[in-house]
Amino acid sequence: MGVSFAQPWFLLLLIPGVLLLAARSGKRRFPPGARRLILGVRALIILLLVLALAQPHLVVKVKGRSIVYLLDQSRSVEGDYSSWIGDSLKAMDSRDRAAVMGFGRDTSLLKPFSMDQLPALASSADAEFTDLAGSLESAYSLLPGSGGRIVLISDGLENIGDALGLGEMLAAAGVPVDVVPVPVKEKLDAAVSNISLPKNTWPGQQVVAEVTVEATAATTAELTVFFGGNLAWRQQLEISPGVQSFSVPLIVGGQGLQRVRATLDPVADSEVRNNSIEGLTFVQAPPR
After folding, report:
1. What CATH number belongs to 190-283?
2. CA dihedral of residues 28, 31, 36, 38 (deg, nearest 10)
């Protein structure tokens, strides 16, 4: 057992602390007996403050290796990897110990080091996001001072954080990260990513709304635009892979703030939640 510091550079503050005590020894203000007690209390306060800044923690030497399995449980990962993790746990040395964590936006502990059997790997993490950096940081905090490693099971499609920067920090700390790549299946997805129209309009004015569509593959889709809740435009389109924009002519109606909604209906789509987008325009009253 030993002591380690998360911020060891703060220990250098002990040097100016000792100098301050020497300069403020109170030889003239306090009698000799009281002066020793006062200096001792001051020295203890400075020591405790510096230790609090340095963040000490006990390091317990563990026989064998400590391994943290990080399982990507975001929506982009398909398949059950509990059997793979279970087989890996069975192949471990008897002196080794393992923990399992699942992550999406957040990271949750699914199996602590103290648990022998692998439980059901159900996670409450937000599956819409993949925070690789946050999960690696959580796994690192779970490892002892030395002799640990991380096994990452993921497709690598992060949309939060900087996993590369965290990986460099782990490499500098001597913590190896083994990656089990999850195959990424290409899915047909078409989405409406933006709608652009004038912010201020007049009743009866003809304007053009620019609707931006993104697709991973060529497909056919019906694009529908509603102005203030009423059908304003509908057309069958041939969508090409990549990003493209469509100009939609509209006749302005109503008054005040009006909502314009564009909806895309592809013949085949893997994600329907990104098939609609809304914009706003302020219809000014006609001049009198």
Report:
1. 2.60.40.10
2. -80
Dump pLDDT digits (tens) for 205-255.
Answer: 999 999 999 998 889 999 999 999 899 999 999 999 899 999 999 999 998
Scored b (16 or more CB within 10 A) or e, 219-246 reads bebebbbbbbeeebbeeebebeeeeeeb
Q: In this structure, how many other beta carbons lie within 10 angstroms of the beta carbon of residue 170?
A: 20
CATH number of 66-181: 3.40.50.410
Question: What CA–CA distance (Å, rounded) separates 167 from 177?
Answer: 8
CATH code 2.60.40.10 region(s) in the chain: 190-283
Crossing angle, helix 163-172 and helix 132-142, to 10 degrees?
Answer: 30
* Letter string b/e over residues 54-67, b meaning 16 or more CB atoms within 10 A of that residue's CB: beeeeeeebeebbb
**Phi first, then psi: what are they for 196, rounded to 5°?**
-125, 130
Question: How many Cβ atoms from other residues are within 10 Å of residue 35's Cβ?
Answer: 15
- End-to-end alpha carbon distance in the chain: 86
| CB burial of residue 115 (10 Å; 0-12, 13-18, 19+) | middle
**Per residue in 241-255, pLDDT tens?**
899 999 999 999 998
